[in-house]
Amino acid sequence: MQALHFGAGNIGRGFIGYLLNKTGYEVCFVDVNQDIIESINKTNSYKIELLDDDSTREIISPVSALNSIKQKDRVIESITEADLITTSVGVENLPKIAGLMAAGLLKRIENNKTEIDVIANENAVNASSTLKKEVEKNLSAEEIEEISKYVGFPNSAIDRLALSKEIDGEEVALVEPVYEWVINKSEMKNTDLPPIADVIYVDDLEAYINRKFYMINMAHAATAYVGFRAGEKTIQSTLADLKMREFIKSVLNEVKKYIVIDSHFSAEELDAYIEKTISRFKNENISDDVRRVGRAPIRKLGSDERLVKPLRNLFELDLPLESLTIVIAAAFRFDNSEDEEAVRLQKYIQEKGIEQAIPHFTGIVEEELINKIEKYYLKLENTEIGELIKNEA
Q1: Residue 215: which residues within 8 A CB-CB, separation 6 or more?
Q2: What pTM did the predictor assign?
Q3: Is 5 annotated as a binding residue?
Q4: Tens digits of per-residue pLDDT, 105-151?
Q5: What is its EC number (predicted)?
Q6: Is 13 annotated as a binding residue?
């Protein structure tokens, strides 16, 4: 079986390519990083290292790689021959590969009228649907109709921390032992292929997306913002403090209450998920900088984003939300001079005031919620985050 994967970064090699290889696919990576391409092709393999106590290393083989700029014809030919196409290029880069993808799919339906799925595995909601729209921008109405007969774009949700380091001159993907890859089976065209190793196939992806985005992504950002305010350097050092750890758990327990109402997950399942999440974040084999995790606070304070959407839902359901409100107040205090969005956020607050900044960036219009966030924001000016957590949450 042949798999073509766009993106030879840490997630591509350490997660998607890894599981495809375990399933029996011969994986060909498509990328623009010539150093990684040459490294893969030199031995038809690459290494990954687990972020566990033993720093376990694995060699993934057989694999190959193509350059999407210098070898377009070969990439197009590979699209015609592949049994499965996947991506992990970053959602912002999907438009950059869409033209090449469209050309390859057009040639495929001319020469190989078999069904195939294209799965975009990005840290975004419904990334495959996004990729499909970008591909269709390069096609006529007739071509879109023809391709839709044979090509599916099933959405997926992925979850695995992936970093990298150089070992003996080779860039090695560092990945945590825990991971989750969920694919919407109802959107697939070709269901005759063997299931990908360790993948969860579902008919409704929304509950899994919400659980991941509004619990894991939310808690990761929450830990970064309170950790930054506490003067901690990493997610791990923040959670080494029992008080901080219990606070993040309280935030997760608040959000859990609406996830239970909004999904098929039971409270018991989510309790186990919370414990697993805290355990992952505490992993001392990882050094996760709070400045990196907290970057782009304007985006993360958006109306439908990881922090504000749960807050709005909890408010509408009249459920407890004090801990999450403190987190959002701390996010408005994320004064990181190295992050462009953080600089813009602080500039706006200085010029307009926090009372205007809250609805401007979050879209929150309820006066009660705005006042509550403002109250904690002002308290954080003269109160240590640890003291605020102890007294208020």
Answers
A1: 252, 255, 256, 259, 270, 273, 274, 277
A2: 0.85
A3: yes
A4: 999 999 888 999 999 999 888 999 999 999 999 999 999 999 999 99
A5: 1.1.1.17
A6: yes
- Residue 163 β-bridge partners: 174
| Beta-strand relationship, 57-60 and 46-50 | antiparallel
DSSP 234: B
The answer to whether the annotation marks 330 as part of a ligand binding site is no
Helix (H) or strand (E) holding 47: strand 46-50
**Number of Cβ atoms within 10 Å of the Cβ of 351:** 9
Domains of the chain: 2-202 (3.40.50.720), 206-392 (1.10.1040.10)
Judge residue 358's burial from the number of C-beta atoms within 10 Å of its C-beta, 0-12 exposed, 13-18 middle, 19 or more buried.
Answer: buried
For residue 116, what are the β-bridge partners?
151
Structure confidence by residue, pLDDT tens digits, 335-375: 999 999 999 999 999 999 999 999 999 999 999 999 999 99
Neighbours of 275 (CB within 10 A): 12
Is 393 known to sit in a ligand binding site?
A: no
User: How many beta carbons lie within 10 A of that of residue 164, not counting itself?
Assistant: 16
Distances (CA, A) of 8 to 29, 38, 172, 333, 338: 6, 12, 11, 36, 27
Q: Is 24 flagged in the annotation as binding?
A: no
Length of the chain as a residue count? 393
Per DSSP, what are the bridge partners of residue 184?
202
For tokens 């985006």, what's the residue? Answer: 299
Chunked into runs of 10 residues, the chain (393 residues) has average pLDDT values of 97 97 98 96 96 92 97 98 97 96 96 94 91 97 96 96 85 92 97 96 92 94 97 96 96 96 94 95 91 96 95 96 97 96 98 97 97 96 84 67
Q: How far apart are CA 195 and CA 20, in angstroms?
A: 10
CB 283 within 8 A of CB 51: yes
How far apart are alpha carbons 213 and 206 in whole angstroms? 10
Per the CB < 8 A criterion, the answer to whether 61 and 43 are in contact is yes
Q: Is 3 within any annotated ligand binding site?
A: yes
Would the annotation count 14 as a binding residue?
Answer: yes
Cis amide leading into 62 (omega within 30): yes
The rounded distance, in Å, linking the Cα atoms of 78 and 304 is 38
